[in-house]
Automatic annotation (TrEMBL):
It comes from Planomonospora parontospora. Residues 512-594 form the 3-hydroxyacyl-CoA dehydrogenase C-terminal domain. This is 3-hydroxyacyl-CoA dehydrogenase. One of its GO terms (molecular function) is long-chain (3S)-3-hydroxyacyl-CoA dehydrogenase (NAD+) activity. The keyword NAD applies. Belongs to the 3-hydroxyacyl-CoA dehydrogenase family.
Length: 690
């Protein structure tokens, strides 16, 4: 068997340095262990075999000392520790190796809770995964109010907290709160909590401000040791864990339909924590970790994680940043919901004036009013101060004339999805703006090249496609038209970065990436229903993928009229692959919002519209039909050069369509399923090494 140290040959070792600290108030000597990998906060400390060995040696050096009153653990500036070194974990190919990784972490970390003296974790910065588990093994914990991220993200990547987290956390803060950190937050786009939130949950026993965090933590530790501060804990084992666990399982089934094993294993481990001894609980974590390390889900999760953390930050094909022009004012054509969301985002992130225009004062007032109301909500939630709220409201104004765009550097339209309307809008805007002002369109499907064909300067037109809701969805499809120049494109990418979006460069092709694939997906499901497949059967044929919503629920979200329009656009471009459903047209004509009623039950009238076909399919046939269609469309898109590589398709679908992270992107999933022939990616990418 390959030694696990060989798998981590490239490990950046986190060293555990020990120094003695004399505690105040005569409380005695503390051996303070500092975790530090030798880099600044941009390269957080992680644990591979080398880091675990260093920590073990540090504990060895203090474990036998009789002169110590306590042992403390803290991190380098801004970072406590962020968990396991997953690069090596992805290379595991034997279960014995996987089991050894789990056991090594347990063997080292548990020593902090089994010393002859109390141990203190001083969480001075980001604490995630194994980093948080280090703290949980200690007797007491303090946390800085400035900590930006506390999390157990393992389920997000296809693992479980495997070094004590599933056993220690529910006993500390109760099963319901523990499941929020272990399962709910990871499955909600890997949500993190801040230091203040962690303290409120009871993860830490005391909280101090960042400026003098360590000094105050040492003072507090001294008071605890002297008996001047008493830390009380609730015995959560007396609670009804079964009700909490059963409720969480129901929610998991609704969200994942059993598609992702990691959250279910985590749930089993949390349930076990109520009665298991420390040895039993840690052994169960080892077994679960070993099983999951040997599965494709981890590799898929790591592949997806690498896309959103690395590729998204260095978009393929983006021009030199130096070419970007400065943006000091933004114009938004339209004052509807999408336009108003964009206006608020531009004002918050760019901190520049934003002016909305529309056809009448009532629409304009409604759009500006929406922005002001959303600002008030942010203020009410404590996310901005009163001064910030006043500044944001002052930045967003309205105008009935496009003359207000005269000094704008970036103007984006969000009007009706009609080519003639958009061409007229840009003709009016171009007449008043400077020659260097970037003109952006939020079109979801129309040709930029055609849209700019009547402009005097088509080189400054660029696609800037947001996803709804604008503030939440992280993807921006940036589309280069036939004439778009590098300066315009560089400015678009610069603005995207300032908006904190992940941008992907897309060729000017019908419906670009996400809408093209979602329309093909929807088209195949609707075609199966048109042919006679029961609507409810087709609706749930792909539940086992754990998609964020079912096909007809998605249709309800975007609206049948919008869905029909995009289908017609793609049918015009690719009539052999994209059909237009007559029943969909009937649904739109009937004024239905979708196939579901207000109570989320199927609308009998809508179902009747789709009934009558004579060639029904089984659920498995619908599933295979959809997946094969997606594989075909992706292959064609890559051949057409719509994006630079398959990885960009995956990035778009993860960030713009909510493609499940545990599947690792759509192309590796199609590879693993045997649907893609030939493969999109090399063997071993997002799958267990052979």
């Amino acid at each position: 068997m390959t030694d696990i140290k060989e798998l981590f040959a490239d490990e950046v070792v986190t060293r555990a340095a020990v120094r003695d600290v004399e505690l105040p108030y005569g409380a005695g000597t503390m051996a303070l262990i500092t975790l530090d990998n030798g880099f600044d906060h941009t390269k957080p400390s992680t644990f591979g075999p080398g880091g675990l060995t260093s920590l073990n040696e540090a504990i060895d050096s203090v474990a036998g000392r009789t002169d110590l009153a306590a042992v403390g653990v803290t991190g380098k500036p801004f970072i406590f520790a962020v968990g396991a070194d997953l690069k090596g974990a992805a290379l595991v190919s034997q279960r014995e190796q996987a089991l050894a990784i789990g056991k090594l972490g347990h063997d080292v970390f548990r020593r902090l809770g089994e010393l002859d003296v109390p141990s203190f974790a001083f969480v001075n910065g980001a604490a995630m995964g194994g980093g948080l588990e280090v703290a949980l093994h200690c007797t007491y914990r303090t946390i800085s109010s400035g900590v930006p991220a506390v999390a157990l993200p393992e389920c997000f990547l296809g693992l479980v907290p495997g070094w004590g987290g599933t056993q220690l956390l529910p006993r500390l803060i109760g099963p319901a709160n523990a499941l929020k950190l272990i399962i709910e937050n990871p499955l909600s786009q890997n949500r993190m909590i801040k230091g203040r939130d962690a303290f409120a949950l009871g993860v830490a026993d005391a909280m101090f401000e960042p400026a003098d965090f360590l000094e105050e933590s040492l003072r507090w530790a001294a008071q605890v040791l002297r008996g001047e501060v008493e830390v009380s804990r609730t015995d959560h084992t007396a609670e009804d864990w079964s009700q909490v666990v059963d409720g969480a399982r129901v929610l998991l089934d609704m969200k994942l339909h059993g598609a992702s094993p990691a959250p279910y294993r985590a749930l089993e481990l949390v349930a076990l924590a109520r009665t298991a001894s420390r040895d039993e609980g840690f052994d169960a974590e080892d077994q679960a970790l070993a099983d999951l390390l040997m599965g494709d889900e981890l590799r898929a999760g790591l592949y997806a994680f690498d896309l959103v953390q690395r590729r998204a930050k260095r978009p393929a094909g983006a021009p030199d940043k130096a070419l970007a022009r400065k943006v000091t004012k933004v114009g938004v054509v339209g004052a509807g919901l999408m336009a108003s969301q964009m206006a608020l985002l531009f004002a918050r992130r760019l901190e520049v004036p934003v002016v909305l225009t529309d056809l009448d004062q009532a629409r304009l007032d409604k759009g500006v009013g929406y922005v002001h109301a959303e600002v008030d909500k942010l203020l009410g939630k404590g996310r901005i101060t009163g001064d910030q709220a006043n500044r944001l409201k002052a930045l967003v104004t309205g105008s009935l004339t496009k003359d207000a765009f005269a000094d704008a550097d970036f103007v984006i339209e969000a009007v009706f999805e009609d080519m003639k309307v958009k061409q007229q809008v840009f003709a009016e805007v171009e007449a008043v703006v400077s020659e260097t002002c970037v003109l952006a369109t939020n079109t979801s499907s129309l040709s930029l090249t055609e849209m700019g064909s009547e402009l005097a300067h088509p080189e400054r037109l660029v696609g800037f496609h947001f996803f709804n809701p604008v503030a939440v969805m992280p993807l921006l499809e940036i589309i280069r038209g036939h004439a778009t120049d590098d300066a315009t494109l560089a400015t678009a990418f610069s603005v995207g970065r300032s908006l904190k979006k992940s941008s992907v460069l897309v060729k000017d092709a019908p419906a670009f990436v996400v809408n093209r694939l979602l329309t093909r997906f929807m088209g195949e499901v609707i075609a199966a229903v048109d042919e006679g497949t029961p609507l409810e059967l087709a609706e749930h044929a792909l539940d086992d993928l754990g998609l964020p919503m079912t096909p007809f629920a998605l249709l309800q979200l975007v609206g049948p009229a919008v869905g029909l329009h995009v289908a017609e656009t793609l049918h015009a471009a690719f009539p052999d692959r994209f059909g237009v459903s007559e029943n969909m047209a009937k649904l739109v004509a009937a004024g239905k919002p979708g196939v579901y009623g207000a109570d989320f039950s199927l609308d009998p009238e809508a179902v009747t519209i789709f009934s009558g076909g004579a060639s029904p399919s089984t659920a498995e046939q619908v599933r295979e039909r959809v997946l094969r269609a997606l594989a075909q469309e992706i292959r064609i898109m890559l051949d057409e050069g719509v994006v630079a590589a398959a990885q960009d398709i995956d990035l778009c679908m993860i960030l713009g369509a909510g493609w499940p992270f545990h599947l690792g992107g759509i192309t590796p999933f199609l590879d693993r399923s045997g649907i893609a022939e030939p493969r999109f990616l090399e063997p071993g990418v997002a799958s267990v090494p052979a």
